[in-house]
Amino acid sequence: MFFNRSLKLLSKVLTVFFCFTVGGPVEAAVLKIQAIDQQNKPVENAVITATPLFSKVEIVKQTKIIDQINKEYVPRVVIISKGSSVKFPNKDNIRHHVYSFSKAKQFELPLYEGSTAPPVEFNSEGTVTLGCNIHDWMRGYVYISETPFAALTDKKGAAVIQELTEETYRVDFWHPRLKKTLISREIKLQQDSIETVKIRLQLKQLIKKRQKMKTRFGRYSD
Ligand SMILES: [Cu+2]
Fold first, then answer.
1. Measured in angstroms, how far is the CA atom of residue 135 from the centroid of ligand 1?
2. Range(s) within the chain of domains with CATH label 2.60.40.2070
3. Most CB contacts within 10 A, which of 58, 170, 209, 217?
């Protein structure tokens, strides 16, 4: 009886030891992502995040900028860590009215010009869709990440995340036109290695119409 219990205890201790040894820090690895769509075309502006499964990450708050240039949000997608802020300067010589009705953050910056709008703080993880009350086609996105290991894909659909020192990560993939809300994969990284992950994202068709400026206010439809 006692022997059996001791054996069980020993096996638990060994399991914990094994997990800590194997799941512990490794030398920094690099994760390279190649994102393509259903037609094998590279996908730009996909958000890739890597969250270590067995350790906590340190989040550094930042302030990032999303300009309004020629009646578009520039850049279109911005990744920030939780608790960070975004400034929305307006570089056009007309007024914009920035708003979001997304679950992660609801706010509006009523009609303004220049850099008069105060920075907006984002304290919940998730995605925020930005609209403009005057220009219906204007869309921007803020991705609030729980991990600092995050990157946006470029025109070639490529993104690189460096300094990954843990062995096991959950990698999340998101894009404004993704058919699912989020795609997640678990990956294991070898010490000092460069891992390449190719991901195919099923995207909704791009429908984007620029229209003449609306004179009617009060429209908040997405
Ligand atoms: Cu506008």
1. 4
2. 27-53+150-204
3. 170
